[in-house]
Design a protein that fits this description.
single chain; alpha+beta; Alpha-Beta Plaits; 2 domains; 4 strands; about 70% helix; about 10% strand
């Protein structure tokens, strides 16, 4: 396609938007409403997925070392744990550290326990490369020498993984369903716009215009509708997420393991995604809608 021809198609698309003011407004409104729903739902689902990932990554195996184990046996146990392929990190926590943590968590009354009376075990805190590998790694660690027990929550963690997996699958299905709904609504609105101009298409076809020569102004028009319709949803999602992020940031401690997605680059990613969805659906809706009127 020549540059001069592209310029002509762009001019025609702008003229068409002005000539068909009310239909243009209806199409942009449909794009705006559907993309706003998509944007809000994407923001919620992406943050829910982030929370789920944070929960999974916080799962750890606490390996209680036998009370009778000496330093050499502890070093040997640490080496054996690190040899397990699925293990990502191993951190040692002495029984004194465990007692201090217990005092901070449960209250100062636990400080009455002296170091000589400390009933707690030395512990290796083990994290796996993948949260789903936790159960298998714990089973392997239990078979090692000098291990009293290896705990990770077991049934609760397994139920949690199952719940998170189900919620992710449901979220993906809902997002796909919402996108198809958006495509259906927007393309149908564009069809109405093109239906009102079917005579114009038929005349162009009868005087010898090629199919693609007729299509391109409508495709560009659909792209403009998608771009214009995405501006308000992008602005609303970006502003709302800014307020929501600030609200949560003030109430969630800095060291808390769960946190929302940071404003940057999350908002830019969602904005670009909404813009692309608007452009693709607008162009696709115009392409499909004009096709039936080219058969003269």
């Amino acid at each position: 396609m020549k540059i001069r021809t592209i310029g002509r198609h762009l001019r025609e698309s702008f003229k068409s938007l002005r000539r068909n003011g009310w239909m243009t407004f209806a199409s942009i409104s449909a794009v705006t409403v559907t993309l706003l729903l998509v944007g809000v739902f994407l923001a919620i689902m992406m943050n829910m997925n982030k929370f789920a990932t944070d929960i999974e990554n916080d799962v750890e195996i606490r390996v209680h070392i036998e009370m009778t184990a000496n330093q050499e046996q502890k070093d040997e146990l640490e080496k054996n744990i690190k040899k397990i392929p699925q293990v990502e990190s191993v951190k040692f926590s002495s029984k004194e550290d465990e007692l201090n943590h217990l005092i901070q968590t449960m209250g100062k009354e636990w400080s009455l326990i002296g170091d000589d009376e400390n009933p707690l075990h030395d512990v290796f805190i083990v994290k796996t490369k993948k949260p789903s590998e936790t159960a298998g790694v714990a089973q392997k660690i239990r078979a090692l020498d000098s291990v009293d027990s290896a705990k990770y929550g077991e049934k609760k963690v397994e139920r949690l993984f199952s719940l998170l997996g189900t919620s992710r699958n449901v979220g993906i299905v809902l997002v796909i369903g919402l996108l198809f709904t958006a495509m259906f609504l927007i393309s149908n609105t564009i069809k109405i716009t093109i239906f009102a101009r079917r005579r114009e298409i038929e005349i162009m076809k009868l005087v010898g215009a090629t199919n693609w020569f007729i299509r391109w102004p409508f495709i560009f028009e659909g792209i403009w509708l998608g771009i214009l319709g995405s501006i308000i949803p992008i602005a609303i999602v970006a502003t709302s997420y800014s307020y929501g992020y600030d609200f949560l940031a003030k109430r969630i401690p800095d060291d808390y393991f769960m946190s929302p997605l940071p404003y940057t680059p999350f908002v830019y990613q969602v904005s670009l995604l909404l813009l692309l969805i608007g452009v693709i659906i607008g162009a696709w809706g115009s392409f499909i809608s004009v096709r039936r009127y080219l058969k003269v």
